[in-house]
Amino acid sequence: MTNIRQVWVFIEREAGEMATVSLELLSKARELADRLNGRVCALLFGHDIADLTQPVIHQGADLVLLADHPELEMYRTLPYARVAIDLVQERQPYIFLLGATPIGRDLAPRIASAVRAGLTADCTALQIGDFERGGKTHADLLYQIRPAFGGNVIATIVNPQMHPQMATVREGVMRLGEPDSTRQGEIERIEPKLDERDLVVQVLERETWQPRCDLKGASIIVAGGAGVGSQENFWLIRELAQVLGGEVAASRAAVDAGFIAQEHQVGQTGVTVRPRLYIACGISGAVQHRAGMDQSSKIVAINTDPDAPIFRIAHYKIVGDLKEVIPWMIRVYREKAN
Amino acid sequence: MAYNCVVLVKQVPDTANISGKAMKDDGTVNRAALPAIFNPEDLNALEMALQVREQYGGQVTVLTMGPPRAAEVLREALYRGADRVILLSDRKFAGSDTLATSYALKCTIERIGDFDIILCGRQAIDGDTAQVGPQVAEKLEIPQITYAESIRSLQGDEIIVQRAFSLGKETVRCTLPCLLTVVGSANQPRPPSARRTITYKLAATPLEYSALLEKWPEFETEEALDRYLADRSQKIPVWAAADVSADEDKLGISGSPTKVLKVDYVVLEAVGSKEIQATPESISALVQELVRDYIL
């Protein structure tokens, strides 16, 4: 069994259903496992969640490790980490993927530390490839690819020896495959071994709210960056989005500058989007931002700097002042609509 | 009851204010283009620790691992109110990934010994990994509370913390000791105090002595300078790997499971791009084209 490489995915749940990022990771894990002649194994933790096993299998899992326990009903770091660490140590997976969500980012480092594995956060691509160093070739490693250092470079990270090779990925980065309801898989029930030290943290209250903006589902997005200049000018971005029936987005620089809330952030550490039209206003186009929007069907970029990197991926390049250009766009579109 | 806090901080390149090229042509980091700053969320962690001390008493120790230059953030921590600062610096730490870093920090915290709460920023702006905090907690075998926004109560060996995410919040109760990673919305970090800036005007690590001797030739020897600073509580201690009993195999490159296979420059392939003049007429034509192509 140990010579069959296992690609693991931690399944996150949201309101009784599988989180989208987990479905996307299962699709990616399927692709990686096929390349490795390996198996996809899903870690499904919770209480009374057996109804999720079939959707997990349909999405690509060969094996579901199901830990059903009252103490696992809601996510908590310690009991979830305990069960996952025990399983990793016992079964030694080759690759282990988690969503780069508040849960995945809390859980993954705790597991990686305990099992002494390498972990790469917020990957924007995962591939299989070889690694040579010191005259030795490590075949079929996981290439963990992410932008690094101010976005000027793309780094490819590998963990040649200490496995599992762990990585987190944001929602929307990997393509969601179609579920196959004819797929068959195995379900194995796990008996969690929890002691009182795993249960010292109690959740007293938990509140979640729906996102106020739906960037992922939007077909038109108007995004502003640092070049917008002020919170006041950001109303131009909102107005254009409203007129065109789109959503408002921002680069990290605009979020950091306080122009708009973080949930509007597009990019490596924000949301990944694939709209029909993306209008980038005052966004220079660092690789982290582009990683979140370069799959858009059409990109219009407005920037005063003719050398801004965003222009190299834009289909329509407008070198100019967004404070002039946006009002023109609004006027023309309104006139057309009338 | 008093609570002792250890705050883990990092000096980071100011990725939001890069002047010029961040990378040199040979692929190495161009430090000159990157001003080094106190990682923003670590300031929120420090502020939270200072508030614990003000309300309950106890000591605030600030620890950073980094090159000699990282003493800058420790001085800043002193100006803002830290009781004690420690620089963890050794060439053996070079090339550490988050796992090796968290091991070094764990060894150091064990040497510090007496702690109730460890605090650090949620993540550092240079890597955005958010991994070191939880990894330190795991290595110390204590619970972690990530995304901490406020300490609701602290009583005996029990802490109640509110966590904040972009789409929710959560209140948790936990036993001490524990580790908190603090989010930027937690508080408004106090500025450096003028009085403390004067008090710690001379604060320096032994790694900075040779440079200081050039400025203050009256000290003649490093020993004389060391004695002078130590007597006035201005000496910032530097601990090396051996001082914290760290196993060398678990440090630096050899202790880091992740390796950089390659670093690629981002070469953008220009798409079939169309230049639109910034004039009302051209913009009007663009909007009409997008409408005609069913994009708008």
User: What about the largest sheet of chain A?
Assistant: 7 strands, parallel
> How much beta of chain B, percentage-wise?
15-25%
Under CATH, the homologous superfamily of chain B reads HUPs
How many beta-strand elements of chain B? Answer: 13
How many domains of chain A? The number is 2
Low-confidence stretches of chain B: none
- The count of DSSP E runs of length 2 or more, i.e. the number of strands of chain A, is 18
Integer average pLDDT of chain A:
93
Helical proportion of chain B, percent range:
25-40%
CATH superfamily of the largest domain in chain A: HUPs
Q: Examine the coordinates and then state which fold CATH places here, giving the name of the CATH topology of chain B.
A: Rossmann fold
Structure commentary:
The complex is a heterodimer of chains A (about 350) and B (about 300). Chain A is an alpha/beta fold and about 350 residues long. Chain A has 2 domains: about 190 residues, Rossmann fold; about 120 residues, Rossmann fold. Chain A is built from 8 helices and 18 strands. A 7-stranded parallel beta sheet of chain A has the order 7-11-6-1-4-5-12. In chain A, strands 15-14-16-17-18 form a 5-stranded parallel beta sheet. A 3-stranded antiparallel beta sheet of chain A has the order 8-9-10, covered by helices on one side. The radius of gyration of chain A is 22 Å and the shape is globular. Chain B has one domain: Rossmann fold. In chain B, strands 9-8-7-10-6-1-4-5-11 form a 9-stranded mixed beta sheet, with helices on both faces. Chain B has a two-stranded antiparallel sheet with strand order 2-3. At the A-B interface, α3, α4, β7, β9 and β10 of A face α3, α4, β7, β9 and β12 of B. β13 of chain A pairs antiparallel with β9 of chain B.
In brief:
The complex is a heterodimer of chains A (338) and B (296). With 338 residues, chain A is of the alpha/beta class.
